[in-house]
Amino acid sequence: MNADLLRQRRNLLATSMVLIAINLAGATIKRDVSVLGTPIEFSNPERVIWGVWILWAYFFVRYWQYLNEEPDLGLHKGMGRWILDRIPEDEFGTYSHHVGWECGVFWTLYYEDHESGHDGWYSSKQGPQSAWKKAMWTIRAFTSVATKTPRFTDYVMPFFVAAILLLLIIFSFLTSRFSAAV
């Protein structure tokens, strides 16, 4: 992970955690605050939270941009390795297998025939063919990579923390609406 992406991840996680803490604790900003011994008075203290939300949105976009600049996150490589470990190998070494990913979640098993003289990768009939079984293999492969490698926590977890924040805000909004209506 390059230093720029690391910095953007840190900023997104920090602002997300601050906003989660503010939301869960029900914190409010007082009109009179002392910063390093200097008194500051806010005429609209709620706008400070708006500023933190603007920073959060900025850091979210920046993290997304820098993440898209990464050449290989290794998630699909690890998931493909998990899938290939479940495909029986041919005992003569005639074929090489490769897992191709589409839209991040759909996969196809490909093979290359070393003995036929035909170059290229062809769709294989080995492994599960039903969409349901392939979906289950995808979930199991993702779970394996997420729990056994740092790839998930390094690259994907900041988005989950940001999503938790948004879910908390939506939940707070809906509960305040319903309690006001009752």
Question: Which stretches are poorly predicted, pLDDT < 50 over at least 5 residues?
Answer: none
Please give the domain count: 2
The termini sit apart by 50 Å
Q: Name the helicity range.
A: 55-70%
Number of helices: 5
Q: SSE order, as H and E?
A: HEEHHEEEHH
Strand content: 5-15%
Mean of residue pLDDT?
83
* Strand order in the largest sheet: 3-4-5
| Sheet having the most strands | 3 strands, antiparallel
Oligomer: single chain
Total number of β-strand segments?
5
Taking all Cα atoms into account, the compactness measure Rg is: 24 Å
Query: So what's the overall shape?
Result: elongated
**Which structural class is indicated by helix and strand composition?**
alpha+beta
Describe this structure in words.
This protein has 182 residues and is an alpha+beta fold. The protein folds into two domains: 3-71 and 155-181, no CATH class; 75-148, no CATH class. 58% of the residues lie in helices and 14% in strands. The chain has a three-stranded antiparallel β-sheet. It is elongated, with a radius of gyration of 24 Å. It starts with a helix and ends with a helix.
Helices and strands, with pairings:
Blueprint: H1 3-25, E1 32-35, E2 38-41, H2 46-69, H3 75-84, E3 95-102, E4 106-113, E5 122-123, H4 131-148, H5 151-181
Antiparallel strand pairs: 1-2, 3-4, 4-5
Helix pairs in contact: 1-2, 1-5, 3-4
List the main descriptive attributes of the protein structure presented here.
182 residues, alpha+beta, 2 domains, two-stranded antiparallel sheet, 5 strands, elongated
